[in-house]
Design goal:
This protein has helices spanning 2-14, 43-47, and strands at 26-36, 40-41, 51-52, 55-65, 70-76, 79-86, 91-100, 103-109, 118-137, 140-144, 147-160, 165-174, 177-182, 186-192, 196-205. The protein has 206 residues and is mainly β. An eight-stranded antiparallel beta barrel has the order 1-4-5-8-9-11-12-15. β11 and β12 form a beta hairpin. The protein is elongated and about 60 Å long.
Length: 206
Amino acid sequence: MKKLAIALLVGAAFAPVVAMADAGDIIARFRAINVNPDVSTTSTLSDLSTDVKDATVPELDFTYMITNNIGAELILGTSRHKVSADLGNGSTSLGKVSVLPPTLTLQWHFMPQSEVFRPYVGAGINYTRFYDVGLNAGGTKLTVDKNSWGGALQVGADFPISKNVFLNVDVKKLWISTDVHMDGVGKLGTLDINPWVFGLGVGMKF
């Protein structure tokens, strides 16, 4: 028995130290994300080939593990995007607009106790606030509706590197839409941004 106990202690000492997600844990992740709009438009915005450029920014999120397999994640980040259109002489910059889309997803973690690979999927909702709008066409001011509600889908995985630290890869699809207006003209159409969000970062379990 003594030899067995010693063997077990030695084995435990050299076993890999893994960050395991359990019910009640809080997980924080810091990612670098690329927000890549999948743009569609209506009306005059379509005639002008209106487009929204991608942006790479930091993102912070927090996950609360309700059970070993189910987590609720709040995703926080903001990005600023260039908007362009064809006003008759090729693509022309219309200025920039900032987007703040706090997103809440409910996740299913397939293998929360895995030593090397812990995948998850999620679905939820995003509320998007448009702010710091600096858009104009030919010197005429453009405005956008400031609020948007839409769905969110997510897939990702954590790769443990120590007891409480891990690498993370994550992909999200958000549905974000707003109406664009021109002073003195009225509504120009609807702008659906609907970005893919590609993230890579590190996380820590508390």
